[in-house]
Amino acid sequence: MYDNGPVALDLFCGSGAVSLGLKQAGFNVVGAVDYEVGACRTYRANHPAVRLIEKDIKKVDPNEFSDLIPEGLDLLVICAPCQPFSSQNRAKSSADKRAGLLDEAKKFITRYEPRIVFLENVPGLASTSIFGEFTEWLHREFGYQVGEPMRINAADSGVPQRRMRMILVATKGVVLRDALNIMLHPKVTVGDVIGDLPVPPIGRSEDLEDPLHFARRHSALNLERLKHIPLNGGGRSSLPARLRLACHKNAKSSAFSDTYGRMSLADVAPTLTTGCTDITRGRFAHPVQNRAITLREAARIQSFPDDYIFHGNANQIAMQIGNAVPPRMMFNIALSMMAALQPLSNSSVAIDAES
Ligand SMILES: C[S@@+](CC[C@H](N)C(=O)[O-])C[C@H]1O[C@@H](n2cnc3c(N)ncnc32)[C@H](O)[C@@H]1O
Fold it and tell me: 116 lies in a domain?
């Protein structure tokens, strides 16, 4: 039916994690949009054949892809920024302009009427009026069958990370025959994916064997703090009073209780954020070494393969990794969408992420 696989567009593509999962499942990703310079460099390095429009999506005309989509669009992926709806964003406000970016996808839907619209975001999005209006619009204007928003955990998809996400699938003329293929996978732990890595050198340099595997240089005070954090756990409450931050000393609430904590080798990691190599921003210390996890460790916890190329400075790469949809989770979901797009007689797509 398809020469190169079903045709997909990846909106808010970031470093290309979604495109990677889609391609691994057999999709033909022809176009993508993002405006962040570092992420776009990374995207191009890994997906050179995809037409990436590096612009604010508000200024992108959907027709910039029309020559690549002569026979209709099969899949439109929308991963708008999640910070406006995230429980981890304590400063969120309904006035956050990024919240309106979901609506920018409407012009692509109007132009191409894709057979599947796939949306990934934080669970908080599902309870907003923006989301309700968007799903109602899909049904009213184009007759999409809009599924219930699903709350999923990346850890159920073989990703060594607790990452709660909301996904929504709307279809037109195709039926998702199976529930999305996400709950079938055995638990993978932090130790499974980073346990074989060597102790990293401190600081980034040109002659690193692995350009992502270097430890952040910690202050003497933070090194002292790390020495008090029990292996495979702990948190800021493990610190003696003299080493606690003034702002934490009198805090009654459990806010930020994970800071300075270690991941556990025997468990999945907490949700990686854009600050995932900073021990002051979450449970991002190594399970047994006195340092934050490296970018390589973060990339593995997000299920990026080691040959994925990242561009940018350390903060930009941490942002690309923390923002990503875990490619393994995306691959598993994409298999189900692939199956839906195949004619019934040809629907025996492998459902095993390990194969
Ligand atoms: C949650 S991240 C997407 C992650 C990506 N799907 C992945 O798997 O790596 C959201 C992305 O939206 C991009 N973005 C935010 N506002 C944008 C805008 N106005 N136009 C284009 N891209 C934008 C950000 O640069 C960021 O890469």
Answer: yes
